[in-house]
Amino acid sequence: MRESRVDTAQAVVLAIGLHALLLAVLFFGMWFSSTREQVSAAGSPISAELIDAAALSEAMQQTLEDRPEPAVEPVPEPQPEPVPEDAAPLPQPVPEPVPEDAPTPPQTVPQEFLTDPDTESRDAVTDQPTPTPTDERELQEERRRQEQVDLTEQRRQQEAERQRRLSEMERERQQQLADIRRRREAAAREAAQAQAQLEKIAEARARSAAEAAASAPAGNNGVDTDLLARYQAAIQAAVLAKWTRPETVPLGARCKLIIRQLPGGEVMSAEVSSPCAYDEQGRRSIEAAVLKAQPLPHAGFEDVFNRTLIFTFTAQDR
């Protein structure tokens, strides 16, 4: 927008008018200002000189120092104006928030726990010289040597403990073996005593049978049936003393045996023949018992002796 000549003339007129107004205000202000009259006081005029305090005498300086302090009059406290009873209460100022009453912001990060305080004196640490690299290496070497010594001692103790346990285990094993040997020896003695007792019983039976056969009269074409029965009973007792009945052979079971013998009761062979109620184990056991029982009873049974003896064995307990 371009400025016209009318606008320019109007602005000049306004500026001249404003300056004329300011000059009129200043003129009237100076016209109405009052002048103060000097007051004449009685007496001579007061003169003053500045003197350095150091140039005064000592007595004057002491007097200046001991001068009393000017008394300060107490300022009376302003009395509150009386408030009429029907007047409305004055507005009370809003109390500012106290820093202690300010709300505590919630803690977003957990508080870190302080480590245990160092019980070592700082003065003692400060007084100690700072270790040099050489001293540090020596300390590390000494620490490694001490750790090696501790490890060696620990291994030695572990080895000693292992040896002690092995010794205890070996001692317990030896004790158990000794107990087993004692039990075996006791069982062997008992078995030997029982075997000797059975042999004595068999010999007594055979001896009594032989004595009875010697005193029996002959007859029946020279064959004494009573002597033959006693002879078979003596062989039964002799074989039974050497036989252990298997559990598979019931009591009272019979088995036929064919025994081949020499004069004097020496057995050449013994075999099982039919009928026989024993199983294979029972048959082998009775044949072995006949061989163990030799020499078979023969003294007093010469009249009924036969090289081939057919004998029926009855299963019994000793």
UniProtKB/TrEMBL annotation:
Pfam families: TonB_2 (PF13103). Residues 60-184 are annotated as: Disordered. Residues 134-184 have a biased composition (Basic and acidic residues). The keyword Endoplasmic reticulum does not apply. It comes from the Bacteria. The keyword Transmembrane applies. The chain crosses the membrane at residues 12-32. Keywords: Membrane, Transmembrane, Transmembrane helix. Residues 71-82, 90-108 have a biased composition (Pro residues). This is TonB C-terminal domain-containing protein. It comes from Novilysobacter selenitireducens. The lineage of its organism: Bacteria, Pseudomonadati, Pseudomonadota, Gammaproteobacteria, Lysobacterales.
